[in-house]
């Protein structure tokens, strides 16, 4: 009735190096007050993480109550560092990986 586990080797887990096996989608919510300079910074930051996950940005309408989804022409590797860098630019909770 006891369970046991046998392993040939054990390695430390590094979340920055971990890769997701299933297809992910990344959505970045752009703040209503974003200017073109901020959008360029977001674009350059995203391009630093090439990968296979599709990415889209959510652009708010004038009231900020609804968003228009725009799919980008490139893909990214979703990971902790990408999320952290984009959220540093745009604020907490602006990146969703599904």
Give the helix proportion (percent range). Answer: 10-25%
* Strand arrangement in the largest pleated sheet: 3-2-1-4
Please tell me how large the radius of gyration is: 17 Å
How far apart are the termini? 38 Å
Structure in words:
This protein is of the alpha+beta class. 22% of the residues lie in helices and 29% in strands. The chain has a 4-stranded mixed sheet with strand order 3-2-1-4. A hairpin with a 6-residue loop joins strand 2 and strand 3. Helix 1 packs antiparallel against helix 2. The protein is elongated, with a radius of gyration of 17 Å. The relative contact order is 0.25. The model has no long low-confidence stretch (mean pLDDT 87).
What's the quick description here?
The chain is of the alpha+beta class and 98 residues long.
């Amino acid at each position: 009735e006891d369970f046991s586990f046998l392993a040939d080797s054990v390695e430390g887990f590094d979340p920055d190096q971990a890769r997701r096996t299933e297809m992910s989608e990344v959505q970045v919510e752009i703040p209503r007050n974003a200017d073109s300079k901020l959008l360029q910074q977001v674009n350059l930051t995203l391009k630093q993480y090439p990968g296979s996950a599709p990415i889209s940005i959510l652009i708010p309408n004038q009231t900020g109550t609804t968003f228009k989804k725009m799919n980008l022409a490139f893909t990214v590797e979703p990971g902790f560092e990408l999320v952290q860098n984009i959220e540093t630019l745009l604020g907490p909770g602006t990146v969703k990986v599904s």
